[in-house]
Amino acid sequence: MDPALGDLACGDVLVRNGRIAAVGENLDPAGAEIVDATNCIVLPGFVDGHRHVWQTQLRGVATDWTIVDYMVHMRTLYCVCYEPEDAYLGNYVGGLEALAAGVTSVVDHSHLQISPEYSDALASGLLDSGVGGVFCYGFYNNPPYRPGDSIDVASIRNRVFAPVEEWHVPNAKRIRDRYFTAAGALRFGIAASEVFMIPFDLAAKELNAAWSLEPALVTAHWACTARADRTPTMIPELHRAGHLHRNMLFTHCNNFSRADFQIVAALGAGVCATPDTELGMGMGFPVQEKMLAAHGSVAFGADICSNVAGDLFGQMRLALQSQRWRGFEASEQLPTSMPITARRYLEIATRIGAEALGMADEIGTLTPGKRADVILVRTDSISTSPSNDPVGTLMFYANASDVDTVLVAGEFRKRNGSLVGVNWPEVRERLVRSRDQIMDRLARIPFAKVREVWHDALTG
Ligand SMILES: [Zn+2]
Description:
Elements: E1 12-16, E2 19-24, E3 40-44, E4 46-52, H1 67-78, H2 84-100, E5 103-110, H3 116-129, E6 132-138, H4 153-160, H5 168-179, E7 186-191, H6 200-212, E8 217-222, H7 235-240, E9 248-252, H8 258-267, E10 270-273, H9 275-281, H10 288-293, E11 297-300, E12 303-304, H11 313-331, H12 342-348, H13 351-356, E13 374-378, H14 390-397, E14 403-408, E15 411-415, E16 418-419, H15 424-442, H16 447-459
Parallel strand pairs: 4-5, 4-12, 5-6, 6-7, 7-8, 8-9, 9-10, 10-11
Antiparallel strand pairs: 1-2, 3-13, 13-14, 14-15, 15-16
The protein binds zinc ion.
Zinc ion is lined by residues 50, 52, 109, 221, 303.
């Protein structure tokens, strides 16, 4: 993925002290441990720009949800059914899921910050998994009730639609100082609320609070409500007032204008497209080509773990084929040329995605000096054999089970097809027990009453 080095048919990657020391043919191992990558493709770890990792226990509950269903159910009902230990486990296993699929960096948009205890659980769960990327503390007022409480409809509205509560800022600072360093593989960031949907003054105040925490990244959902005519993006206004900066990652952006993309690209900030959830839940068409056309950087994200798997193979493929069809459809003829190469989307999942996160100096290519986030994908499995084109193998044949080895900052996280240091039967038992308890609590909430409040608020 390093354009200067190109692809090697056969070669070596030398790792030293967590960094890539050299890439080339017949390198002197200089006493290093040898990892035999015969019948493997060696490439940089995948970069996921947007994921709600805490939802791991809820796989499949969102299968037939629209984005409105998701906002109503996940962010007002399922969320309050988590206890801190569920938050820990969701992030721990979700981090492992990413690693198992070769995703070495993930932007965790973590909006389950119900109380300080949850924040500790979420941060330590993701850290304990060993995945790299950015833990983005979510500025979101979770609903003020617990399973079994009587529901006061007015208080839900007043709290959730109010400005971000004051306690979040010192709490986020505490989490940053306790768990994260600027040089760690997993860094501290902020996930702002949907600031494009709130009055300008509140959006400005919230972004000021975010920047005051000196985060590695500020991310937010943006312009994904399929209401381009009625919901302005606020990008020009926030930009003119100096609230947007280089280390920002704008997620979805389905309703961005060309000018919005140009502003974000000129800042050097990034965009993240989440093809599965945007296409499948009704947010809009993925914008990777629009951002690239504006000479900006874009990443892919799996987004909603309760809806789709946490790998990037599926995201790359869906984005590529739906975008190819757009090109073919416009011509109304049998196609005679291919509008987009597969390699371009493999680059979005690695090199270009790293640029979108503002981490191009650190990750995204196998380049000497960068962090040793390296993965090996098998070409001799039942799915991938024989491999006639490595890009095609990765884009159209490989799946998470073909990821043989994963290193994050030179540490083995997966080896010979198994996660390192993880007793999966024991972890799985805890995960299933946690799921059972979440579902038991869910049954104690007056579902219909809460849903009504939210549905009206979101669609009215
Ligand atoms: Zn999201």
